[in-house]
Amino acid sequence: xxxxxxxxxxxxxxxxxxxYTAEPVSRAALEVILATAxxxxxxxxxxxxxxxxxxxxxxxxxxxxxxxxxxxxAAAPALxxxxxxxxxxxxxxxxxxxxxxxxxxxxxxxxxVRREFARKTEEERExxxxxxxxxxxxxLLLAAEEQGYQTSPMLGFDEEKIKSAVALPxxxxxxxxxxxxxxxxxxxxxxxxxxxxxxxxx
Amino acid sequence: xxxxxxxxxxxxxxxxxxxYTAEPVSRAALEVILATAxxxxxxxxxxxxxxxxxxxxxxxxxxxxxxxxxxxxAAAPALxxxxxxxxxxxxxxxxxxxxxxxxxxxxxxxxxVRREFARKTEEERExxxxxxxxxxxxxLLLAAEEQGYQTSPMLGFDEEKIKSAVALPxxxxxxxxxxxxxxxxxxxxxxxxxxxxxxxxx
Lengths: 202, 202
Prior knowledge:
The structure is a homodimer. Chain A has helices spanning 7-13, 27-37, 57-66, 71-75, 86-91, 103-118, 122-146, 159-165, 195-198, and strands at residues 49-54, 78-84, 150-154, 173-181, 199-201. Chain A is an alpha+beta fold. In chain A, helix 2 (27-37) crosses helix 7 (122-146) and helix 3 packs antiparallel against helix 8. Strand 5 (199-201) of chain A pairs parallel with strand 1 of chain B.
């Protein structure tokens, strides 16, 4: 399946791609990509990330409208809505607790989660979980490239329209809309800050 | 240098590690890890992420205090403060614009950035950029594992104490504190939601 390339090589090769061939994204590859994204770490292991894979033309049209008709949305054979549902994650905290933990450690984790969220509003909880959706997004983009698919992650869109297009509950937050398929263009070479612009050593 | 493992294998192998050997993290490996993190995508290519690498004992003590004395902070030979400075990123937008773009496209990108932030407060701008710090964090964790180093990303800490410990400007946001070193424990196997719990197909 994969390309055999390293994480660093995969990150070097990945570029934002806005033109795609008509070839569908294989279900097997999507499952590997999403399972890899799901291996990202999260606070309390709550894994608030959720994914909607969209291939239906009518839904893609709605997503295109929600993403200001950026050309990669209509061009891609599939779209991935990356969202977070922290309310759901907290409600089902038992699913997040590691099965190897003894009951006293389980109760301690439950108590930590209760303490963390006790004084947060629903909006604050959802914004808290939203950030962790982007850790999974980082994993997802690298996993897609490794599976031989190119992507274009979009962070700018009409969030309510996206939620409406894929019938998401009101409280969730949309982290990103990702176009995915076999690239039909080269993309621009990376243009990134040199390390000494973004790193300090203490 | 790297392990030659794939993105998926690296994600499978990576676990939260809280005990480390005394071996320092090599400067060359850190540079590869940070350069890989810097390849993450960001809106308008603004790359708001910044990193402080901490090996000094006195600063580590301050960070330990800021992170509620979680044992991996004192145990790790190095710590990485992952933060975002969106104010700086916006102020120096010229650095983010791709050199291949012609002047009309450059002006269009400047205008998009101005439009995006015109009605945002400083706090809103920084919260906007903070999310993108987590994309880079996902890259960083995989790159570290690939370089043969284990990590423990912490998302819970006293943010003001972290900023004070490493002398960061007031407006920036701390995305994560990452302990890094050669692991001295196995860590717990992954415990993650099955795909059908987190994925919908449309």
